[in-house]
Structure formats: structure tokens, C-alpha cells
Amino acid sequence: MRCRICGGLLESRVTDLPFKIGDSSIVILRSLPVLQCRQCGDAELEQVTMSRVDQLLAAVEGSAELKVIRYAA
């Protein structure tokens, strides 16, 4: 698979990614499986992973400023 930004090769990796939800809340998902470009470092999520991320983010209480969640498929 190729990167949509630079055309480089994507490889499977596990990383931590921040997601901003609302005006003042940030959720960091730890150990998240991504496809990361070897050339520019851009990360993409596969559809199955994104669906799970959506579920995890929807369950976060909106009043928390920072929350760290370990991703589990």
C-alpha cells in the first residue's frame, strides 16, 4: 500500500496517537495499530481499527482534559 501524502510504502506499526475531542479534551490511544509511511511518517488507520477508535472516543467523558486509553481490538 502507498502513502496518500508522498507515495512512500506503508508498513504496519504500533504507536501512540492523540485525538482531540471537543474544545478542550485530548485522548491518547496507546498501542494503536497503524499503517505508517516509511518515507514521511504519516499514519493511516485501517477501517476496522478506525471503527474501534470511534467506539473508544465516544465512550470518553467530555469533562476530562486528558485521558490515556490502551487500545484493545
Keywords:
4-stranded mixed β-sheet; about 70 residues; alpha+beta; elongated; 1 helix
SSE layout:
Blueprint: E1 10-21, E2 25-37, E3 43-44, H1 47-58, E4 66-70
Parallel strand pairs: 2-4
Antiparallel strand pairs: 1-2, 2-3
Description of the structure:
The chain is of the alpha+beta class and 73 residues long. The chain has one domain: Ubiquitin-like (UB roll) (Roll). 16% of the residues lie in helices and 44% in strands. It contains 1 helix and 4 strands; from the N terminus they run E-E-E-H-E. It has one helix at 47-58, and strands spanning 10-21, 25-37, 43-44, 66-70. Strands 1, 2, 3 and 4 form a 4-stranded mixed beta sheet that branches. The model has no long low-confidence stretch (mean pLDDT 92).
Would you give the CATH topology? Ubiquitin-like (UB roll)
Number of domains: 1
Number of helices: 1
Q: Roughly how many Å apart are the termini?
A: 22 Å
Q: Please identify the structural class as seen in this structure.
A: alpha+beta
Which residues form runs of ≥5 with pLDDT under 50? none
Secondary structure: number of strands:
4
Question: What oligomeric state do the depicted chains represent?
Answer: single chain
Report the average pLDDT across residues: 92
Binned strand content = 35-45%
User: How would a crystallographer describe the biggest sheet?
Assistant: 4 strands, mixed
CATH class, please? Alpha Beta
Q: Radius of gyration in whole Å, from Cα?
A: 13 Å
Order of helices and strands: EEEHE
Choose one word for the global shape.
elongated
CATH architecture descriptor name = Roll
Q: What portion of residues is helical?
A: 10-25%
